[in-house]
Amino acid sequence: MRINAYSNTQYRASNYQAQNNSSNPSFGSTAGNARRAFEWLGEKCNIQSNGSLTRGMFFAVGTLFMLGGRFFESRDNDEKREVVTRDVPAVALSVAGAPLINQAVAYGVTKKTGIPIVTLGEKKNLWGASFSSQKQLVDWYSELGDNALVNFSETVNKHGGNLQKVFKKLGFTDKLAAITGAKDNESILNAIKEAKQNDTEAFKNLEAAMKSLTKDNKLLKAAKRNQAYVKLGGIAFMATLLGYLLPRLNIITTRKKYQKKVEAGQMDQATFEKKMMRTSPVFRVSSGVLSFHKSSAEKTFKNLLSMVEHTDSNK
To answer: What is the pTM of this model?
Structure first.
């Protein structure tokens, strides 16, 4: 037997909401700002799906913990200067410099050769470009599926390539000429689409040729070669900058500073030599002879390899 049977579902729901609201009192703007700051920090600390840190977090960790520790543990102002002029650029290059250099050079190579090795976004310029991977190039330039000719042409046009040049690299100049004699991308693309709509024999021939492209075609080989040259060039540039130019700058600066003290009698020659032994670039010129320093080279190139791995992992 049920006495005074009624539904209290709505009452319980509203009561729960009231209790829930009252259990989260406001502590003012200070607590709100702290919470937002904590949420921002948590977002920046997120690990990406491929296991790597975000660029911002990588820069923060490198600057605060590695460079910060080295800076405050420096024995004198010379070592502090070395951290600022040598180590800070190294971290900056690893976070942003390396991809930006690759991006800029790859964009220039794309414009020069007409073969895209960059991916362009909404901005069809350098700032909207990103350096394409070798896998991306394979997808663009080989084993094309249905609607191969139109899709290929639109891809080349979208990412800043030159249709006339890419068809020439493939050896399809005559087949393209059977469709159109136009020179610019838009005219060529429109002519291809019109030939498809009219189902012309010229379109069928070029379409069949595009579908038969394998992974050893000349266009893909050229694109992969250009991509590899850009990456190797970036590594060589950073190796020269970090392994020789910046350390050499520190040596010259330190030498000038203490040479004046030696000439003024404020420092003896032994102390001067000891000061000058603390920095050792990969390559050093002494008495006109270029010498190679293995230990410095190993350290420099290990840093470069980790830099490249970090750059690749953020793609």
So the answer is: 0.63
Check: CB of residue 274 under 8 Å from CB of residue 262. Answer: no
Q: What is the pLDDT of residues 256-300, one digit of tens each?
A: 877 877 777 777 777 767 766 654 444 444 443 434 444 454 555
